[in-house]
């Protein structure tokens, strides 16, 4: 994996400049994810202001994921020869403009249009942000660099989502979106000042001649993307309605709900810190452990839903399950994405883009399936379905070829 215009740090991988660059990348991830999931915490406020149903507002998440999934791979190819910083700046500018449009939207249609602009470049951002972080450090630290970037995702759950939800309740959802727009502009400036230009990989695009199709080029990468799609679908079947799950099944409402959501995110941060080194040295074991725990906690929550009741013991068990959910679901994606890039060392951006596209399809499918199950079957069935999806991925990882080994 070449470093483009970014020279290898002379005194080890974690120099102050590398640390600052990774912080900027994490900030970009933070603001993008906060913008993406903002409607989750503001569904009632948006619905009331724009005179539409909560279910209609809920489609913003699925439609966002659909646009991102469709646009990611073509945009990755279109920008293949751009310097990596320019590509990231392009996505951040689009994010800023989209949030301004959304904050001023007079109708739901205009709000949806503003989110489309953001969604168009969401996958492109994720396809380059992790490779940029990886190219700042030696290959032996790839998973740790990816984890550092993904800290922004966990912080979006800990800080971004609760903050925008609170602002939506106090001052209206438009104020929350305006804050995201201002933060996006600030991150754009920081990225321009801090990050190296960083040329694209040597054989990005067609620099070494026509590429073989993806299915011929790297079967392990395709299998990993397929399992990612299934796993993300299972996660988002229930995560889309996590606020409802915490209130109805765990029995926590009011300020306690916000604290438990924050705990979900904090657990993710802690899990990423604990698994950063194992993610580089023993990625298969780390992923298998996370999938096993995630299956268990989703099954526990489903069981609590079927049993009913709100005793102190059940509330405590449900709260612990939510924390376990946050820890495992947050720690797995950076390990998978760093592995995907290792499977395609000559085109990490392309591999990352394919992985991101699969991830976004999973978000869309999970949100839609979850909505149907929520309306017609209820939260316990929804959670049991999530557990079944994650268990299927776990079995495939255990029984199939070692997807975390290098090679094709």
Summarize the structure in short.
The protein is mainly α and 408 residues long.
Sum up the structure in keywords.
single chain; 408 residues; mainly alpha; Growth Hormone, Chain: A; 15 helices; globular; disordered N terminus
Report on the architecture of this protein.
The structure is a single chain. With 408 residues, this protein is mainly α. The protein has a single domain, classed as MFS general substrate transporter like domains (Growth Hormone, Chain: A), CATH 1.20.1250.20. The longest helix is centred in the C-terminal third of the chain and has 31 residues. The N terminus is likely disordered.
Radius of gyration: 20 Å
Q: How many structural units, i.e. domains? A: 1
Q: What shape does the CA trace take?
A: globular
Give the C-level CATH assignment. Mainly Alpha
The level of helicity is over 70%
Classify the secondary structure makeup into a structural class.
mainly alpha
Q: Gap between N and C termini, in Å?
A: 17 Å
Lay out the secondary structure.
Blueprint: H1 16-41, H2 43-50, H3 54-78, H4 84-103, H5 108-135, H6 142-171, H7 173-194, H8 214-217, H9 219-239, H10 242-250, H11 255-281, H12 283-307, H13 312-342, H14 348-376, H15 379-399
Helix pairs in contact: 1-3, 1-5, 1-6, 1-7, 2-3, 3-5, 3-14, 4-5, 4-7, 5-6, 5-14, 6-7, 6-11, 6-13, 9-13, 9-14, 9-15, 11-12, 11-13, 12-13, 12-15, 13-14
